[in-house]
Amino acid sequence: MLKGAGLGCFSAVILEEVLVKKKNINKYRRVVGAEVIGGLKSFSRPLKGKRVVHINSTANGGGVAEILISLVPLQRSLGVDSRWFVVNPPAKFFEITKKFHNALQGANIKFSKSELDYYLKINKQFGRALKDIKADLFVIHDPQPLASWHFAERLEPAISRIHIDLSTPNKQLLEFLLPYLNDYDKVIFSLNSFVPKGLPVGKVAIIPPAIDPLVPKNEPMSLKAARKVLAGLGIDIKRPIVAQVSRFDPWKDPTGVINAYRLARKKIVGLQLILLGNATAKDDPESAMMIEKVKRHAGEDPDIHLVNVDNNMLVNAVQTGADIVLQKSIREGFGLTATEALWKGKPVIAGNVGGLALQIDNPHNGILVEKSTTAAEAIVKLFNDKSFAAELGREAHKSVLKNYLITRLLRDHHRLYRSLI
Ligand code: UDP
Question: What is the pTM of this model?
Fold first, then answer.
């Protein structure tokens, strides 16, 4: 739920508060143990009552919203006065910032002066709206509202959290953004290799994302229940199933997934593919075009199931019910979809890039691939070697329990906050 916030009556509502459901940190004892939760509580005590404000570009769709939906209420449960606002700019702004996203992940795009000026103009408006929000610390996520801090003219500490894969950034854009990034006290990246040159080492923090094991998407679901949902989608649950769950975005390479499926199907008789995505992220105006492209690539194949629905239980059912989960990204800031599938003990085949290469120790808890042909070979191997597939799944679950649950993320965030407030 959203509500306008922090603005005088004559300005457009450019920042909206996201109202999140309450969560109780004590419930996580049953997943990570009482000791971890006790430690987290005492570690978070110095932050009691501190006002932390998160700002990002969408409350729905994509990994950042997914994290904030859990992080914000769990911070509250730990005594931090955490709030979350999303920016609400004209559609033109997100067309430009989606180009920013693509360029920062390596696309060869040139930006005109008028595009960059427009980005700054809107960020100036975000900055003005920030002036009205009471806070002890700001955490501003991703490039869309990045420059707002420069215009906010506030004295409190601020963190920029960059979630995208910055391994091969567009130089023009990076040079343009770097001064605004340098305005922050700290900048969080998911991986060391994403840290751009020109940012002092002392400003950098490396904190990989994490999943919430107690949301409907990640709660244990039986194979039987998951398969029942898949059958309802018209999928033949007696035949082999591979799946990818992702926004429809070129970087997630859905057409490459179809190519891999087609090659693997030559050896795995009756193989079916589910491509589940949602087009709800308001900061991603390209998704409708991408869905059409994927549909054309899939053609008339009745065994490719392209599903465009925003439903957490469906995500759970697909990740639980598929035999193998793919995340064949070409660039990936982290890849929560892979974490979610690993957590469910699935054999995961992922692109050997960014955050996926961080999560997967090939071939112990998953398989990393470079292209569609090797993804197809991995699919065939996993169907033909069930004990290898089961071992991968067991290791996958253990690796998420150890490294990528939200309780670890809370501690990392709070450690950084404590160094600033
Ligand atoms: N997601 C979803 N429904 C979909 C596709 C994705 O709920 O149809 C969720 C997915 O479960 C994950 C998040 O969106 O929690 C995507 O995060 P990720 O880090 O994988 O990628 P991003 O979209 O942020 O690039």
Answer: 0.96
